[in-house]
């Protein structure tokens, strides 16, 4: 496993807790016959600002909640695993800025649901992976666009009047902005060898000089230092040699 990415309990715990909280809010609403829709985003009104924080946790019916739960489980797990240092910030800022943009551009109606947050996650994971140029994150971006690429049509008006395309568009814009804001220099490849430097010149490299243009191994031409080492050594000091006979200091065997 890549050293940049570590599996922790939060990879499973964060999406499970978040989705469980959504279902808990919906259970309270139907159990005690509450109507939380007026707590959603109502654009360009002061009271509608409360929905910036509350709207992602409010859903109209069981089908609405179910359709948002599965993507949140997958995307939050991917966010926590591949972007652990930025995950909480992306989640918090994503909810806030997506809500603000929806409050500015939305129709005069209550906007509720976590679909805007889903678009934040899809947009952030896709654009961030492309920007880092890190092969694992680029692969994640391609996987996200294959699975959730069809969602892009729902950021345009009049595709489905029953959905909040403004919230989807706000989430998409927010995710892209967060991908530019959060930097991930730790994903850059660490240069370990000289040949990985952009200014590497193979002509000056000692190892590469041992190969010709066809890739064949060749011997280096003798250098001046090698020629000097091969020359004989002369000295001005006299050297006296003494010859010692080859006699072994051993006693002869007695008979």
UniProtKB/TrEMBL annotation:
<keyword id="KW-0472">Membrane</keyword>
<feature type="transmembrane region" description="Helical">
    <location>
        <begin position="112"/>
        <end position="130"/>
    </location>
</feature>
<feature type="domain" description="Peptidase S54 rhomboid">
    <location>
        <begin position="52"/>
        <end position="181"/>
    </location>
</feature>
<feature type="transmembrane region" description="Helical">
    <location>
        <begin position="162"/>
        <end position="182"/>
    </location>
</feature>
<feature type="transmembrane region" description="Helical">
    <location>
        <begin position="65"/>
        <end position="83"/>
    </location>
</feature>
<feature type="transmembrane region" description="Helical">
    <location>
        <begin position="7"/>
        <end position="28"/>
    </location>
</feature>
<keyword id="KW-0645">Protease</keyword>
<feature type="transmembrane region" description="Helical">
    <location>
        <begin position="90"/>
        <end position="106"/>
    </location>
</feature>
<keyword id="KW-1133">Transmembrane helix</keyword>
<dbReference type="Pfam" id="PF01694">
    <property type="entry name" value="Rhomboid"/>
</dbReference>
<dbReference type="GO" id="GO:0016020">
    <property type="term" value="C:membrane"/>
</dbReference>
<feature type="transmembrane region" description="Helical">
    <location>
        <begin position="137"/>
        <end position="156"/>
    </location>
</feature>
<keyword id="KW-0812">Transmembrane</keyword>
<protein>
    <submittedName>
        <fullName>Membrane associated serine protease, rhomboid family</fullName>
    </submittedName>
</protein>
<dbReference type="GO" id="GO:0004252">
    <property type="term" value="F:serine-type endopeptidase activity"/>
</dbReference>
<dbReference type="InterPro" id="IPR022764">
    <property type="entry name" value="Peptidase_S54_rhomboid_dom"/>
</dbReference>
<dbReference type="InterPro" id="IPR035952">
    <property type="entry name" value="Rhomboid-like_sf"/>
</dbReference>
<dbReference type="GO" id="GO:0006508">
    <property type="term" value="P:proteolysis"/>
</dbReference>
<keyword id="KW-0378">Hydrolase</keyword>
């Amino acid at each position: 496993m890549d050293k940049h990415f570590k599996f922790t309990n939060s990879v499973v715990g964060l999406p499970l807790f978040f989705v469980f909280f959504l279902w808990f809010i919906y259970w309270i609403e139907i159990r005690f016959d509450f109507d939380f829709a007026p707590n959603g985003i109502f654009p360009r009104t002061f009271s509608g600002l409360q929905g910036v924080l509350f709207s992602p946790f409010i859903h109209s019916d069981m089908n609405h909640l179910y359709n948002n739960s599965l993507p949140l489980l997958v995307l939050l797990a991917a966010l926590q695993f591949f972007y652990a240092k930025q995950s909480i910030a992306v989640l918090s800022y994503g909810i806030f800025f997506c809500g603000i943009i929806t409050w500015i551009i939305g129709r005069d109606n209550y906007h509720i649901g976590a679909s805007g947050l889903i678009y934040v996650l899809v947009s952030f994971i896709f654009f961030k992976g492309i920007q880092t140029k890190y092969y694992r994150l680029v692969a994640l971006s391609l996987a996200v666009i294959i699975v959730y690429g069809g969602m892009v049509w729902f950021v345009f008006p009049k595709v489905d009047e029953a959905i909040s395309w403004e919230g989807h568009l706000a989430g998409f814009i927010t995710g892209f902005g967060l991908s530019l804001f959060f930097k991930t220099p730790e994903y850059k490849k660490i240069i370990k060898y000289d040949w990985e430097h952009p200014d590497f010149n193979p002509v000056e490299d000692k190892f590469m000089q041992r190969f010709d243009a066809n890739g064949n191994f060749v011997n280096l031409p003798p250098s001046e230092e090698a020629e000097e080492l091969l020359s004989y050594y002369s000295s001005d000091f006299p050297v006296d040699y003494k010859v010692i006979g080859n006699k072994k200091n051993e006693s002869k065997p007695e008979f």
